[in-house]
Structure formats: structure tokens, C-alpha cells
């Protein structure tokens, strides 16, 4: 058995619900072999982020070099990238591997409100990383920050997605989980062809949603590595995260609990 090998470039979550830990759990559940490059170590739990310690840039680069000299990486995802210097380093290294699909989760703020991306890094994300992306997966606040468009309805969500596509991402997904007035969680998928597809699932009343964005993008990465087409990979990820939220892990921590990475069965 030789599974597909995938890479996550992100921060470590000591609470295990998001970041590198969520990505690796998702990769395992979806039958791919996960490797990792850690950009920062966070001290966090379900109650919030207590502190963030960026990994020295030379160690981040050494991790990247170690991965690419030995593994046959079939897809890559990025999560927490700290600031513009980390983004520039990651972009420089990923540009050397243009044939490997890249899924960008533009992580900006932790579930408890702690910033995970320096505010002056947004422009670098737009100019250095988004043009390398095959798929980018912002939530509504992230899409607003990246585009400057206030998203209030489907029309403005589509405007933001088109702007992100014009910046260079082949496919754009804007996740609708933050639109709390909507009884459904509706994501917009803007495909390479320009077709817009809307994916809806019932909204679940729960506080156990820590790491949903990481998990969603990690599942897309795994499916793309297995050579699923874009739409099939995204549909699988939508079903995967819905199951992970709908079948919660009870009484883990006292705040925003993790999702259930082994709930989905297909």
C-alpha cells in the first residue's frame, strides 16, 4: 500500500482541535499520509489562545527542504502563516513546485478571537500566495479582509469570490458559517470555469466548532491528492465537516470544543 502523501504548513494547536493537529487527523481519516511544516507553536485550549511563539524562519525553511527532498507530495495546504515574512518564505519555496495543487486556508483569527495573522500581512497574502493557489477557502470575515467587500448577501459574496479569483486562485470557496441569520450554512464555490455553485447544509446549534476551517480545507487537500475533481473534493469536504459537527465529541474542554474527525463514513 502506498498512500498519497500530503503536506500541511500551519501552526500547532496544543489543544488538538485545530491547526496541524486537526489537519493530520483529517488526513488520516481520509486515507492519505500527512507530513507537516510547523510555522508557530501556540499555547491554547478550547477556551482560547494564551500565547503564540513563531518558529524561527530558518527552521521553517529547513522543514520545507526536508519534506521536498524525500516525499512525493501530491497536495499542499497552508493554514496559520504568522506574518508577511513567513508568507514570503513559504511562497518562495512553493513556487519551486508549481505542479503540486495548493489549497490555502487564510487563517486570520482563532475561534476565541485571538489574531493568528499580523494585520500587515493581508497584502502579502493577496500578492504572493493567492496567485499560487488552486483553491482558497476563506470564511466571510476573511473574505471581507482580503477583498475590502462587506459581505451582506449572496450578491456581495459572489463579488468577493470573483475578486479573489481575479487575484489568481483557480477556485474560490467562501464559507458561509458566519452568516448566523441563515438557518443553513451555505458555502459559495466559484469554479475555474466561472460557474458559481452554492452548497448548503443545516446549521447545527453547537459551540463545538473549533478547527472547522482547518478540517474542511484539510479534507479538500486529501481528496485533491487522491485525484478527485474540484467539485467532488469540495462536496466530500462539506459532507465531512457536517458530520464532524453533527456528531460531536462530548465534554472535551470547557469552551469551543473540537469537531469529530472520525464521524464521516463514505
What this model shows, in words?
The protein is α/β, with parallel strands linked by helices and 266 residues long. The chain has one domain (5-246): Ribokinase (UDP-N-acetylmuramoyl-L-alanine:D-glutamate ligase, 3-Layer(aba) Sandwich), CATH 3.40.1190.20. The chain is 36% helix and 22% strand. The chain is built from 8 helices and 9 strands. It has helices at residues 19-29, 57-70, 84-94, 122-129, 140-147, 154-166, 212-225, 230-246, and strands at residues 5-13, 33-45, 48-54, 73-78, 102-104, 135-136, 171-174, 184-190, 196-202. The protein has a 9-stranded mixed beta sheet, sandwiched between helices. Strand 1, helix 1 (19-29) and strand 2 (33-45) form a beta-alpha-beta unit. Helix 1 crosses helix 7 (212-225) and helix 7 (212-225) packs antiparallel against helix 8 (230-246). The longest helix has 17 residues, at 230-246. It is globular and about 45 Å long. The two termini are 20 Å apart. The model has no long low-confidence stretch (mean pLDDT 93).
Task: Provide a quick synopsis of the model.
Helices cover 36% and strands 22% of the residues. With 266 residues, the protein is of the alpha/beta class.
Q: Which spans of ≥5 residues are poorly predicted at pLDDT below 50? A: none
Structural class: alpha/beta
User: What's the main sheet like?
Assistant: 9 strands, mixed
* Dominant shape: globular
CATH superfamily: Ribokinase
**Level-2 CATH architecture:** 3-Layer(aba) Sandwich
List keywords for this structure.
266 residues, alpha/beta, UDP-N-acetylmuramoyl-L-alanine:D-glutamate ligase, 9-stranded mixed sheet, globular
